[in-house]
Design goal:
245 residues, alpha/beta, five-stranded parallel sheet, three-stranded parallel sheet, 9 helices
């Protein structure tokens, strides 16, 4: 078990300092790196680490809405969206130690729609979307990926569903009648602090709107209109860490 293992974490304040430590003090069993750092960002650091230590697991800590890392699927074993939850980090680290250097994000072919995706990333999904056209589009995308999502139209229906059934991921529209996604998320978190993973869906892309989602208890963010590649990236990011919960 991960809890019984002994750790000796080494801290670095920059990518250059981390690279120096890896070169002079290694080997390290795992690297956790922020995406946004001065002088050298997480992608640049991971690229240089891979040249020296090609098999070491690298976990990226990324800000909400920053998907620039997705252009480099070979660099990271996993990606976590800040603020980091302890349980989520624990599961990701455990997975990397059990199966080192196995990517948990973006290792599927982005250009294909295959029902095998759900086999690789199993999750029970609830879609909360009041616009019926959007609801059908999202449901169709999920079904082509091999999922069988449940559908609701407002926050009250979300609460009713999660009380009766267990979901791994909720794709939550922010603006819905009767009860919006933010209020529904707050109520869910009062009852179930850890699960399900809640991913906001909203057309608003301002940083303040993203922060409202995080403050309400949401885990991640999808911009509308929903794009296939973006949806697959988020599902690949969040579904694997739920296995064994």
């Amino acid at each position: 078990k991960l809890k019984s293992w002994q750790y000796n974490p080494i801290l670095a304040s920059s990518g250059f300092e981390a690279l120096s430590m890896i070169t002079n003090k290694g080997p390290f069993d795992m690297v956790l790196t922020d995406m946004q750092m001065p002088e050298m960002d997480g992608v640049q650091l991971a690229t240089l680490i891979r040249k020296k230590r090609p098999k070491v697991p690298i976990i990226l800590l990324s800000s909400l809405g920053d998907s620039s890392y997705s252009r480099y699927p070979e660099l990271f074993s996993a990606v976590l969206t800040k603020p980091i939850k302890h349980r989520q980090l624990y599961k990701i680290m455990l997975r990397q130690f059990q199966t080192p250097a196995t990517p948990t994000v973006n290792h599927v072919n982005k250009g294909t729609m295959s029902a095998d995706f759900a086999k690789l990333h199993p999750a029970r999904i609830l879609v909360a979307e009041d616009n019926l056209i959007n609801q059908r589009v999202i449901a169709r995308l999920l079904m082509k990926l091999g999922f069988s999502p449940d559908l609701v139209e407002n926050g009250l229906e979300v609460l009713s569903k999660v009380e009766k059934e267990t979901y791994d991921i909720v794709l939550m529209d922010v603006q819905m009648p009767e009860m919006d996604g933010l209020e529904a998320t707050q109520k869910i978190r009062q009852q179930m602090p850890e699960r399900p993973v809640i991913i906001a869906m909203t057309a608003n892309a301002m940083e303040g709107d993203r922060q409202k989602c995080i403050d309400a208890g949401m885990d991640d963010y999808l911009s509308k209109p929903i794009r296939v590649n973006q949806l697959k990236e988020k599902l690949a990011q969040w579904a694997p860490a739920l296995e064994g919960s």
